[in-house]
């Protein structure tokens, strides 16, 4: 198998995996952590305030919140931020109440916000798949690279 054929097959696997992951996330409801993490990330970006969900590292939350913020800037859509509720103003661990208010009670399109927050994770999935293939190919050859990418691409753990 030539290098071009190997790369083409790897690209097709990545495209197929991204399609599976994208169409999988379209119909999914928010998992419990997204209710806290997405609004926290959005507050980090927009309000420069780290009071929500400080116990977890901010990178992934920043990516999710940044995607929502970027969408609002590109489309000129107002994202309602309920900063007048006790969960934001004074609650010690108000991230869950605030998250439910931000997503479901403030007039925002919760399905759209959740989808936007998941898109950066899809990009991370693709980047990791690319590097799994690239690294394994360099270490063990093109067939091993394709095998590693195949196992990664069709693992329910990563696609979900």
The level of helicity is over 70%
Succession of helices and strands: HHHHHHHH
Structural class: mainly alpha
Instruction: Supply Rg.
Output: 19 Å
Q: Mind describing the biggest β-sheet? A: none
* Record field, number of beta strands: 0
Oligomeric grouping of the chains = single chain
Low-confidence stretches: none
| Span of the ends, CA to CA | 31 Å
Describe this structure in words.
This protein has 160 residues and is mainly α. It has one domain (3-159). The protein has helices at residues 3-26, 32-46, 59-75, 86-89, 95-105, 110-140, 142-153, 156-159. The mean pLDDT is 93.
Summarize the structure.
With 160 residues, the chain is mainly α.
Short key terms for the protein model shown above:
160 residues; mainly alpha; elongated
């Amino acid at each position: 198998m030539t290098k071009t054929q190997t790369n083409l097959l790897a690209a097709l696997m990545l495209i197929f995996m991204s399609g599976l992951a994208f169409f999988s996330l379209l119909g999914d409801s928010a998992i419990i952590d997204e209710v806290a993490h997405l609004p926290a990330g959005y507050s980090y970006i927009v309000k420069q305030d780290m009071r929500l969900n400080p116990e977890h590292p901010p990178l992934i939350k920043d990516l999710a919140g940044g995607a929502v913020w970027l969408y609002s800037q590109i489309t000129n859509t107002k994202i309602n931020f309920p900063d007048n509720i006790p969960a934001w103003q004074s609650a010690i661990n108000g991230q869950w109440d605030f998250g439910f208010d931000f997503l479901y009670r403030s007039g925002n399109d919760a399905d759209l916000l959740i989808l936007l927050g998941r898109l950066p994770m899809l990009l991370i999935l693709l980047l990791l798949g690319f590097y799994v293939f690239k690294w394994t190919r360099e270490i063990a050859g093109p067939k091993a690279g394709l095998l590693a990418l195949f196992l990664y691409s069709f693992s329910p753990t990563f696609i979900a």
